[in-house]
Design a protein that fits this description.
alpha/beta; Spore Coat Polysaccharide Biosynthesis Protein SpsA, Chain A; Rossmann fold; 3 domains; 14 helices; about 35% helix
Length: about 425
């Protein structure tokens, strides 16, 4: 059996309307090395299997179909761990290129370009590129552009973690097969590409090319992304999985990326608490999701009390955590940083719990910033108190935590506490 350099790994389920485009994109590749096409069908109920078998019969030396009799997505928990083991066992290549059955490639030199670079740069473990995004509902086509302004570059850690311009297209990923050797917690979320990209950060360089070489179908019929928008319980499951993954990743990387992970963690926390009625306990919602068959990692329940306390901090004007109470006792002059929605929340919680504070601080004071809610407003770098006597309460959404820390550092503020950060 001929050795192959690249294995194309295609996962498909009910992609009758799309799978031909994916396969034709694979077959169109012009490369000076041998490659194989592995198509794994997860027990489709439409004509996807018939189409794949037709191509397999036509190209038996190139295409290899795997046909599940029962849907494994609904049976294997966590599904991604099972799937990656299957990928590792079926794919023979030094490199693996992935493309889900509803996406497709549009550049016949895609694999050649990526492999040439990977062969010349052994430090590179993952190569991604730009793509078109086709909205299957509206018919509109836009550029994905996950790294705006970049022509070709190695991706920085903050760009990968924060995903400032959205996520890189999955169908653009080509990686060394050792990237499949991830610790178990990387397989717990229902999303697989983001954890794999973050694992790549710990194993080598991640390269990006702005050349448009694939198409990402958004809102394709029956796709996970379309169901995620419509199903709140699925979205809860999705966000809880990624939240816990990021918390574990913070420990795994020994807090190396802390300032950016805080931002990402906060994004998922807010999505979880904002989309569920405040009167519905998160634990009850979790039970309903499990009854519908959604799999959660073994430590999920450990976070519900923490999330409930966070939800009270955001929504309950009479709430005041023990940590916040203890913090304000340490300093003679308590100042609230921020006079937006979060600043008002803290002000009301202080008033309802008889906690005194001196006023508000902003990073840049405007002329009209004299009083706010009857309290004085100061510029953060110009507080009228001995700096060691001041305790700053950060009342700003920590989704921009890196900016907040930079402002505090610039103002030489040493004592601060953010009650809106998840208490881990």
């Amino acid at each position: 059996m001929e050795d192959v350099l690249v294995s194309i790994w295609c996962i498909t389920y009910n992609h009758e309307a799309y799978i031909k485009d994916a396969i034709e994109g694979f077959l169109a590749q012009e490369a000076n090395f041998p490659y194989e096409i592995i198509i794994h069908d997860d027990a489709s109920t439409d004509k996807t299997v018939d189409i794949v078998r037709e191509y397999e019969n036509k190209y038996p030396e190139l295409i290899h179909g795997i046909y599940e009799v029962e849907n494994q997505f609904s049976k294997k928990h966590p599904f991604l761990r099972w799937l990656h083991k299957a990928e590792s066992s079926y794919c023979r290549g030094k490199y693996i290129a992935i493309c889900e059955g509803d996406d497709f490639w549009i550049d016949k030199y895609k694999l050649q370009i990526q492999v040439n670079y990977m062969e010349d740069h052994p430090e590179c473990i993952l190569y991604m590129h730009n793509a078109l995004k086709f909205n299957c509902q509206s018919g509109t086509i836009t550029l994905v552009n996950p790294y705006k302004g970049a022509i070709e570059k190695d991706i920085e850690a903050d760009e990968m973690i924060m995903q400032y311009n959205g996520h890189p297209p999955t169908a653009s990923m080509l990686y060394r097969r050792e990237l499949l050797e991830m610790p178990d917690f990387f397989y717990e979320p229902s999303a697989g590409d983001y954890p794999m990209q973050l694992y790549a950060l710990t194993r080598g360089k991640v390269h990006y090319d702005s050349r448009i070489m694939s198409v990402y179908r958004w809102f394709s019929v029956g796709s996970y992304s379309s169901r995620l928008v419509m199903d709140k319980q699925m979205k809860f499951h999705f966000n809880m999985g990624l939240l816990i993954f990021l918390i574990n990743y913070e420990e795994y990387t020994n807090h190396e990326y802390h300032v950016w992970l805080v931002n990402s963690i906060q994004k998922y926390v807010l999505t979880i608490v904002e989309e569920i009625d405040f009167n519905v306990p998160l634990r009850n919602y979790f039970v309903k999701c499990k009854e519908k068959g959604y799999y959660f990692g073994p430590n999920t329940e450990n976070y519900f009390e923490i999330l409930e306390n966070f939800r009270k901090q955001v929504y309950d004007p009479f709430y005041c955590s023990e940590r916040l109470r203890n913090y304000v006792k340490k300093y003679k002059n308590i100042v609230i940083m921020g006079k937006g929605a979060y600043g008002l929340k803290i002000m009301h919680q202080f008033q309802n719990n008889s906690i005194e504070f001196k006023g508000f601080a902003v990073t840049k004071k405007e002329e009209e910033d004299i009083l706010f809610e009857g309290k004085p407003v100061w510029e953060l770098s110009n507080l009228p108190f001995n700096i060691d006597s001041v305790g700053i309460i950060i009342a700003i959404n920590p989704i921009c935590w890196d900016d907040i820390l930079n402002s505090l550092k610039k103002a030489k503020i040493r004592n601060y506490f953010c009650p809106f950060l998840l208490e881990l």
